[in-house]
Design a protein that fits this description.
about 1200 residues, 3-stranded antiparallel β-sheet
């Protein structure tokens, strides 16, 4: 076994998987602000790094909040993962070093590999300026340790490439601190003296080599000095090891290694710390033997300079200890700057609080925290309630309204959680608040458990009406049944079930109410489809939607028209049955009243709409309509789109209504009657299949081919519509022999169409562009029309007039003929010129070419505008058609048929803007502009013109309007109409500005104004006037001003004078009443005095504190009422004065005597009778300590003269003590 063991050891193969452990101290951590570790981005970041690098990462958190990472994987993966971990979890620093530009390439290495390797090894990001950049600055970003390593390696590489002297010394790492000195003082001094660059590896780099680069002489001197220090320290250095617990190492090191540097500076002893990622606690001190004792004392002092202790506190009160935004903990530590308080993770059930800092400060902080914890535990508590999660949304309420209300009322914290399957509501706070909140929550849960839920099925088409505009209708229902929750499925939910939840009784009431609403909606949702010819839809809508809006307002029915791109001509009306029928009649009346001349836009010659009924037995309805309505739709399409309406199945009517243009109605009537006759004789049906693209050829242009077969056989041929699923089936209906004959002809034609041929024709190349323009729009139209024939024009750049056509023979021939017709039309086209100054082109074209597009479509012409030219002087000369030499930039070319070109030219000229001036007084300009230019902007948009008003500094009475002649004229009329309106308004304002003044005694003003302005407001409203009262103390205090129409001001004056006359009849009497009883007469909030004023119908005014006579009270009213009120006030005042006098007497007897009273009491009170208090405690004076009477001696003779002469000190309460 031993041999095998030895052999195995010798044969061991190195593993490709490595493991690296490293630590991120708490002070260098990047905080993700999560409540506990692992809940923030940490977990996700590690997973991302593992996915990117392939390394396995384990992460843990120590009690001191530092992070430890265990990374396992291939060497390169581990290094890459380490760099990424430190980037995300450790605070990043940045430094910049200058390296000569010529050495950058050596740092980069071949293909940048050396730089990448360096970044991996040091876990940093190194930015080297590009070659084109003259900068020699290299930026290194990463952790402090990584930056030190990177700087060292870069400087070593730079020094190696330097052409100056370069030395590499092997000096053991343990002697580097003696060479560098504390804070690098020695090495910096040496570099300053010799002018060389000395690179000593930082503590984190485990290398022995020291490099020196610079002038040869300086390098040699520096080498000699360094070796001298090394040899000296190697001889006299001794070591001592000391065990210090790992948690205290950071205090020995100090901030940025300052403590170690301090020990080295004072004692010359180097302190060697074990790596942070190892469990080793041993610290090694190296230096002169006689200094080791002092250094050891300093190490112990540094290690014990910070004390750590813990305070036990339940984890749930930690947040209260911390306080809002850390207020409580700040109050404890504000005078203890060196104390660090750390709270354990919330998952720690023991709830420890860790305190770290100087021993004295830690003790103070510990005492404060323990007091705070005891206080919080005594005043705070928590309760947990288990609640079914389905009740959470009801407890929380909409936008948290319920839970927030409970929190505010009870001043507690409520946390709702369903983590780990524990459906718990936790309440924290003061004991009373927690009890109240728990009771209310339990009541709410109990109520929810006893609630009822009902489903009501409502058709989805009623949802919009049920909810109402902006939810108003459903809001009314919810307010009416405020204890019920109504849930309506959302737009994406296809269910038709509305849920009602709440108390049983309320749910049932709400259910019945909802059923009633749905029933009303059903009654008001009668739907009727009215076919109206597509050409008449615009007249149904009216200008700006005026007609359709009027019908909707009058009938209160909803009217929906098909979109412009839809082929349907059916208008849908929804509402109550009578409203729907009324709307239908109004729409049909508009259609019947419309008479327009026949044009290419209408498929009928006369637009007089008629309606005719024919009698057809109901037994033939199904055969006439056909499968899927094919037959009846074919008849309607063939007869110009007439409407054929069959009576409902339950009406037992035999009247079929045909509606449309007179000739088309007659044609449809004849076909229907023929079909009825055919059905009575026979009803044979057959089907033929043909490719959908060949149907158009079978039908022929304007239906000529299919009509020929129908006329020759007497059978009806029905082609599939867009709604049919099978687009290839052609149905033939009629007598058996007619159907068979038509079928044979169709099959023969289809066979011919299926025979594909290829042919060519010649088309002048100048016309090729017309066919292929707009992505071959014309060619697509020809192909669709002639059975999908393929047409190939020569490619661009090939000079040829040969056009190839491929398809069925008849389709090819038809396409050829159509191309010839188009070429003939093109050759008959002319091009004319229209001269319009270039500056007007933009206006003529309109926004996005809207105007000119309308002209091209209306007159079937092509219009080409010239390229825009720039003018240096900014001015252009205007030219009229035929006058002088025309410039190319003004010439617009119109191509098309001669008569269309002339019309298009005139239409363009009509769009050329003109400028007209309108005389408008300058004072009206502001009113025409409107608020923020709104009115003038609306006018410009409405009439499509540009309006320029006078500049403010010129104040011209002219407004300029620029636009098309007709538009400018319309705008001018609008401006003149506005001016006329403004003149009328100004005249009206002048009439309303009539001012009337009248004199009224200021004492009457309050009565005229009335309580809270009620009287004067009524006068203002009744007469539409403005009434202004002067301020008190104004020189014209007696003048009231009335403004408005003259007639109205006079009427208002009469109303005011009527009040004044009534006030003049009143008398005013002043009575003197002791001011001490005024408050009792007035009563609380004036209730007593108001009662007197209402009882006697008088006005009573009490004096102000600043009045000369504070006892004078004024009474105003009718003479008799004033007398009665005066008598009542005097009687009350007399009663109140008795109470006042009694109170004064009582105060006189009970008030303590003053010193002056005692001094003059013997003489003044000799003749007075009554009870007199003497010797009371409040009359005792300060004792005289030198008095024998007050302080007699003990054991002496008290029978002397002094004793005999001592006066008696007894009083009503006995002898004085």
């Amino acid at each position: 076994m031993g041999q095998w063991s030895t052999t195995n050891n010798k044969m061991r193969v190195g593993s490709s998987v490595v493991t690296q452990v490293f630590r991120v101290p708490y002070e260098e951590r990047k905080m993700d602000m999560s409540e506990r570790f692992g809940e923030g981005d940490s977990k996700g970041i590690c997973q991302d790094i593992m996915g990117e690098t392939g390394a396995h990462i384990e992460i843990s958190q120590s009690k001191d909040q530092s992070l430890t990472f265990l990374v396992t994987g291939k060497q390169t993966a581990v290094l890459d993962a380490r760099r990424k971990i430190l980037t995300h979890f450790q605070t990043q620093a940045s430094t910049t070093i200058s390296i000569p530009k010529e050495y950058h390439r050596f740092i980069l290495g071949k293909g940048g590999n050396k730089l990448k390797e360096l970044e991996k090894n040091t876990a940093t990001k190194i930015s080297i300026p590009p070659t084109a950049d003259s900068s020699d600055k290299i930026v290194i970003t990463g952790t402090k340790e990584g930056i030190e390593k990177a700087v060292h390696e870069i400087r070593v590489t730079s020094d190696e490439q330097s052409k100056q002297a370069y030395e590499r010394l092997e000096v053991p790492k343990i002697y580097h601190p003696f060479i560098a000195g504390a804070h690098n003082e020695k090495v910096n001094a040496l570099m300053s003296e010799t002018g060389v660059r000395i690179n000593i590896p930082p503590l984190s780099v485990q290398k022995d080599e020291i490099t020196i680069a610079g002038e040869k002489e300086g390098v040699m001197l520096s080498k000699q000095r360094i070796l001298s220090v090394f040899n000296e320290m190697a001889k006299k250095c001794a070591t001592v090891s000391v065990e210090v617990i790992k948690s205290q190492h950071k205090y020995v090191i100090g901030p940025k290694g300052s403590s170690i540097a301090e020990i080295l500076q004072e004692t010359g002893v180097s302190v060697e710390m074990p790596p942070s990622d190892t469990p080793n606690d041993t610290i090694t001190l190296r230096g002169p033997q006689d200094k080791l004792g002092q250094a050891l004392s300093m190490v112990y002092l540094k290690a014990n300079s910070v004390r750590t202790t813990t305070v036990s506190a339940p984890a749930w009160i930690h947040k209260y200890i911390i306080g809002r935004k850390g207020a409580n903990i700040k109050q404890i530590t504000q005078d203890l700057p060196k104390v660090h308080v750390e709270f354990t993770d919330i998952t720690d059930k023991e709830g420890k609080i860790r305190i770290e800092g100087p021993p004295e400060e830690v003790e103070t902080a510990q005492k404060s925290l323990e007091d705070l914890v005891r206080n919080l535990i005594g005043t705070l508590t928590f309760e947990e309630i288990v609640v079914d999660p389905k009740f959470y949304k009801h407890i929380i309420g909409k936008a948290g309204v319920n839970i927030n209300r409970i929190k505010e009322e009870t001043n507690v914290i409520i946390n709702i959680s369903d983590n780990d399957g524990k459906n718990i509501i936790r309440i924290e706070g003061n004991k009373e608040g927690v009890a109240n909140a728990k009771r209310e929550l339990e009541e709410m849960v109990h109520k929810l458990e006893n609630e009822k839920e009902r489903d009501i099925i409502i058709d989805r088409r009623f949802y919009k009406s049920l909810i109402g505009s902006k939810g108003e209708r459903i809001r009314e229902v919810r307010e009416k049944f405020n204890q019920v929750q109504i849930t309506i499925p959302g737009p994406g939910d296809k269910r038709d079930v509305v849920k009602i939840r709440g108390a049983k009784e309320d749910v049932d009431k709400c259910y019945r109410h909802m059923q009633k609403l749905v029933k009303e909606l059903g009654e008001s949702s009668h739907v009727l489809e009215v076919p109206i010819y597509k050409q008449f839809h615009k007249y149904i809508i009216g200008k700006g939607g005026a007609n359709i809006r009027k019908i909707r307002d009058e009938t209160q029915a909803r009217i929906d028209l098909p979109g412009e791109g839809e082929k349907s001509d059916v208008i849908t009306i929804t509402g109550k049955k009578e409203s729907v029928e009324e709307a239908r009649d109004k729409i049909q009346k508009i259609q019947n009243d419309m008479v327009t001349a026949a044009s290419v836009s209408f498929p009928f010659e006369q637009a007089n709409i008629v309606s005719e009924d024919i009698t057809i037995p109901p037994k033939h309805y199904n055969s006439l309509i056909g499968a899927g309505g094919k037959l009846i739709h074919a008849i309607m399409d063939e007869c110009g789109g007439v409407t054929i309406k069959f009576p409902p199945t339950d009406s037992n009517s035999d009247k079929v209504t045909i509606r449309g243009p007179k000739d088309d109605v007659e044609k449809a009537k004849q076909q229907l009657l023929e079909l009825v006759t055919e059905r009575q004789l026979s009803g044979f049906t057959a089907e033929v299949r043909a490719k959908a693209q060949h149907h158009k050829f079978l039908i022929g242009r304007n239906g000529v081919n299919i009509k020929k077969i129908r006329d020759s056989t007497g059978a009806r041929i029905i082609f599939p519509t867009d709604k049919d699923e099978d687009k290839e089936v052609i149905t033939i209906v009629g007598k058996k022999d007619s159907v068979e004959k038509a079928k044979a002809e169709l099959e023969a034609t289809i066979k011919e169409i299926d025979n594909i041929v290829e042919s060519d024709m010649c088309v002048d190349p100048k016309h090729h562009r017309h066919f292929v323009a707009r992505r071959g729009e014309v060619l697509h139209q020809i192909a669709d029309q002639y059975g999908g024939v393929m047409i190939s024009f020569p490619r661009a750049g090939i000079t040829s007039d040969k056009v190839v056509l491929k398809g069925s023979k008849d389709c090819v021939e038809g396409a050829k003929q159509r191309i010839k017709e188009i070429v003939h039309d093109l050759e008959s086209m002319i091009t004319i010129e229209c001269i319009i100054p270039q500056k007007h082109h933009r206006t003529v074209m309109g926004a996005k070419g809207f105007k000119v597009q309308g002209i091209t479509q209306e007159f079937d012409v092509q219009i080409k505008f010239p390229e825009r030219e720039n003018f240096n002087n900014g001015e252009q000369e205007e030219h009229v058609n035929g006058d002088g030499a025309n410039r190319p930039c003004d010439t617009i070319r119109i191509t098309g048929k001669q008569e269309n070109c002339a019309k298009a030219k005139q239409a363009l000229l009509d769009l050329v803007p003109v400028t007209i001036e309108v005389s408008v007084p300058y004072e009206y300009h502001r009113s025409i502009i409107g608020q923020k230019g709104r009115d003038v902007r609306e006018m410009m948009e409405k009439y499509d013109v540009h309006i320029v008003l006078s500049p403010a500094d010129q104040k011209l009475d002219v407004i300029k309007i620029t636009g098309a002649p007709s538009a400018a004229a319309s705008a001018k009329e609008a401006v003149e109409e506005r001016c006329k309106q403004l003149e009328e308004d100004r005249a009206d304002r002048q009439l309303r500005s009539f001012e009337l003044k009248l004199e009224v005694d200021p004492d009457f003003h309050p009565k005229i104004i009335g309580k809270r302005g009620a009287v004067i407001t009524k006068i203002r409203q009744d007469h539409d006037v403005q009434i202004n009262f002067p301020k008190k103390g104004d020189p014209e205090e007696h003048i009231i001003t009335i403004t408005g129409y003259e007639k109205n001001t006079e009427a208002a004056k009469e109303d005011i004078m009527r009040i004044v006359n009534e006030l003049n009849k009143m008398v005013k009497e002043q009575v003197s009443i002791d001011h001490r009883v005024h408050a009792r007469l007035i009563g609380q909030r004036g209730r007593a005095i108001h009662k007197v004023m209402e009882l006697y119908n008088v006005d009573i005014k009490f004096p102000r504190s600043t009045d000369p006579d504070p006892s004078l009270v004024s009474i105003i009213g009718a003479e008799e009422n004033v007398a009665e009120a005066k008598e009542s006030l005097l009687n009350q005042a007399e009663e109140y004065m008795q109470d006042v006098n009694e109170q004064l007497e009582l105060e006189q007897y009970t008030r303590p005597s003053t010193r002056s009273d005692k001094e003059g009491g013997a003489g003044a009170g000799a003749g007075e009778t009554g009870f007199v208090v003497k010797g009371a405690p409040w009359e005792q004076s300060t004792p005289n300590t030198s008095s024998i009477e007050d302080f007699p001696s003990f054991g002496g003779d008290n029978s002397g003269p002094a004793a005999a002469a001592a006066p008696s000190t007894s009083g009503p309460w006995g002898p004085r003590r």
